[in-house]
Amino acid sequence: xxxxxxxxxxxxIRTLVSKYAIFEGHSVIQAFDGMQAVExxxxxxxxxxxxxxxxxxxxxxxxxxxxxxxxxxxVIMLSARGEEYDRxxxxxxxxxDYVVKPFSPKELMMRxxxxxxxxxxxxxxxxxxxxGGLEVDFTARKVVIDGTVTELSPKEYDLLFYMVxxxxxxxxxxxxxxxxxxxxxxxxDRTLDTHIKLLRRHLGEYSSLIVTLRGTGYRFEG
Length: 222
Prior knowledge:
Number of helices: 8
Helix content: 40-55%
Distance between the termini: 41 Å
């Protein structure tokens, strides 16, 4: 079972999620704003964070950026808004998943399980893929572009590694979601599109290696 940090300025949300998490057998720590969440992540053994965006003192995006300075603990972001900008901003900040309010506590706990299971899987390949100035080190979980290490979000690493290992293969959207997010993924195609967009941005001049197959999915060419 996991030690879950729930951060939301609404006590009703914290209470609802906490009750369901405890019912599922997890332990819970609560924070009422971003600053408290950062301190708890720094001083407590936290397995995963459920973080609201709109909070006093320090908002969720800023809190995640601070947490990422010292921890790669997985984060699920909660928001009353579902705009693409918010999702992109969240993923750029290092968020693992994004849930729009109102939400089902049961589904939220299932997302927690999916993320924790995915985090428990290590990369099996010991090969280093290189093309031009792009180097993908599967074992070290590292991407180097023209000699500079590029920091990706956890899911961006998973997506890039899977596409590189299947380079030259047409990968349908369904196949990518199934193999990168898992069979029990609860999101939609926009999640994949958002991560592809962010991944291309990080790859810079090598973004063209990810080819869009209209009506099908994507292919990595290298």
